Amino acid sequence: MLPEITEQKPVLTGKLLYHSYSCYTCNDSKLYLYDFAANTNSLLSDGWAIDNPMNAHFSPDVAYIVFMGVQKGTSNWDIFYWKIGAASEPINLTSALGNTRDEDPNFNNKGDRIIFKHSGHLVEMDLGGNITRTISSGNSEESMPCYNYDDSNILYAQGDGASSDIFLVDTSGSNIKKMEALPAIQEYFPVAKDTLSFFYTAWQSLNNHNDQLYLGYYNGIKLPVYLPFNTSDANYSDAGPCGLKYLFLSSTKADSKGGYDLYIANIITGKIWNMLLYNTNINSVKEELGACYFNR
After folding, report:
1. Per-residue model confidence (pLDDT) at position 289
2. Which of 30, 47, 199, 234 lies most in the core, judged by the most C-beta atoms within 10 Å?
3. How far apart are CA 118 and CA 103, in angstroms?
4. Residue 4 — pLDDT band, cuts 50, 70, 90?
5. Is 167 in contact with 159 (CB distance < 8 Å)?
6. Distance separating alpha carbons of residues 271 and 264, to the nearest angstrom
7. 166: helix, coil or strand?
8. Cβ-count burial 94-127 (b if 16+ within 10 Å, e if not)
């Protein structure tokens, strides 16, 4: 009998952004940057005059990040832009918009535009904070937008809870397509993977509201793929693509130290590794979420 081959965790050299907080309503989120090559885990947001920074994303050249947070002294969610390693504070790109909720920012693939949720709808701005285009203005709340592979379309979630579904809209806002929309099942947080597919999060079933991760397809020819590392007794969410076959995610599975821990998984074999195997300071008794990986 041949010996069993143990699948080893992937060897990576890029960087990983994520946030960590005590609880969803504790308002104590902090941003971290893990460098695989140097094996260093850095607290980015220490000393910033910004409360609750989270949901950060890299620019395509990995020189900048964009994230949401609350400027100290206010109660408004704003979008911030920061050059990695800069001594100066992040720039508040949306402070001039007034008392509005500005959330869920994401760079386009050229790095010269940012899509985000502004007062419940999708808008696009340049790197100076000027809104260049309103993508949507319907009656339902639209959130969690991201560009597809060539910036021609935007994936996003529409609705809330059981009514939340995944949609695709072109950047003119004139052509909207429903992508994933099972009745009474929450589907949200779409993330572009490649020219054919995207990841998203959805409830396991009508009666089991544990989040699970799926691979969906733009052309609709293939049915969504239930990714093999999911288990119905835990949550799996916050997809962060990593190459062709790996995915960063957050999960409440049994070996987590807190509620949510960060993991990396093989989307083909289903093998999953706790990020503590890379660095013992990454996961904690707090909740680690919002992984975004980039390798130049």
Report:
1. 98
2. 199
3. 7
4. low
5. no
6. 9
7. strand
8. beebeeebbbbbbbbeeeebbbbbbebbbbbbeb
